[in-house]
Design goal:
Strand content: 15-25%
Low-confidence stretches: none
CATH architecture: 3-Layer(aba) Sandwich
Mean pLDDT: 94
Oligomer: single chain
CATH class: Alpha Beta
Number of helices: 9
Radius of gyration: 18 Å
Distance between the termini: 30 Å
């Protein structure tokens, strides 16, 4: 059955919004979040066994600045939990949307009803180019820049989601945020923008999953509201998934001259005063060997490893 993915993107459109080729690698002006494009994409079936993502078959109900009324209605009463997904480095628009659909199907395959989610994706303008030698990679640096420029756009995306989230939660649904890789660099910009624009504390997410976060490992130290330090004011709990076997983050550390959050979790994470267990958890994933590990998969363990996927699904079900 095709997957339905509601989305927002701050990619500049070069043509009609219902055409896949129109979603460029350029970022809309940070000063004009009203130019963020919203829509609904339909993705044909992914082949989970072959680990092959599907393809976008159509894009509908598009518009600028806000979800369509049909999307608002669908998301406000989804009949299942909501999952908001922000992709990482090396993802074209199509990659981002099909990966969102792929994740939806992976978690649904856990057999847990709570892991069967309605998905909303935010696609920032990654070029979809791999890291290249020698360091530093121009493609990596360019993506890191556009991820950082996306903070205010993701902040307004969250603001548009807030009444939808409130409605969905009032109907008994939980709400999750999953950010992968460099999507966490974009997320820290959104969290800073949220509070810099005068928005207060809000339970946007019951659980935030920071997967293989390509963000500095001291991000939570920038109190009171710098980088990710105020993310706990927007979420019930934060689960950081990290791995000392993540080759991509080893490369990122060399490029950035700074340890990454997804390598060993937050700086000083054993300090339970700063990181109370009821608000923060770190899942070390380097010991999972239930998938074929190579350069790419070592950074994608959150979906490639059945054990890690099951941990996320159990967290969605409030079993962890």
């Amino acid at each position: 059955m095709p997957a339905t993915i509601h989305f927002a993107t701050n990619r500049v459109l070069t043509g009609p919004a219902d055409q896949l080729a129109s979603y460029s690698e350029a970022v809309v002006a940070p000063s004009d979040p009203g130019e963020v494009n919203y829509g609904t994409a339909f993705v044909n079936d992914a082949n989970l066994t072959a680990d092959t993502i599907g393809a976008i078959t159509s894009i509908q109900t598009t518009g600028k600045g806000q979800f369509s009324q049909s999307a608002i209605d669908d998301l406000s009463d989804p009949g299942r939990n909501l999952l908001i997904f922000i992709h990482g480095f090396d993802n074209s628009f199509e990659n981002a949307i099909t990966r969102a659909a792929f994740n939806q199907q992976w978690f649904a395959a856990s057999g847990l009803k709570e892991a069967e989610t309605t998905v909303v994706a935010f696609s920032w303008p990654s070029r979809g180019k791999l890291i290249a030698l020698p360091f530093p990679s121009a493609a990596y640096r360019r993506d890191q820049t556009t991820a950082g420029q996306s903070g205010v756009h993701i902040m307004t995306f969250f603001a548009n989601l807030q009444p939808i989230i409130d409605s969905a939660r009032a109907k008994g649904n939980r709400v999750f945020l999953l950010t992968h890789s460099m999507g966490n660099w974009a997320l820290q910009g959104a969290v800073e923008s949220w509070f810099a624009h005068g928005n207060g504390d809000a339970l946007l997410f019951d659980e935030v999953f920071l997967a293989a976060a390509d963000e500095i490992h001291s991000s939570f130290d920038f109190l009171p509201d710098g980088r990710l330090s105020a993310l706990d004011r927007l979420s019930g709990r934060i689960s950081t998934y990290a791995s000392d076997k993540d080759v991509v983050l080893d490369i990122s550390q060399k490029i950035n001259f700074a340890k990454r959050l997804g390598q060993d979790g937050p700086h000083d994470r054993s300090n339970t005063t700063r990181f109370p267990p009821e608000k923060y958890r770190t899942v070390m994933c380097g010991g999972f060997t239930d998938y074929k590990i190579n350069l790419g998969s070592s950074h994608q363990y959150y979906r490639r490893s059945p054990g890690v996927r099951m941990d996320i699904a159990n967290t969605m079900a409030d079993n962890v």
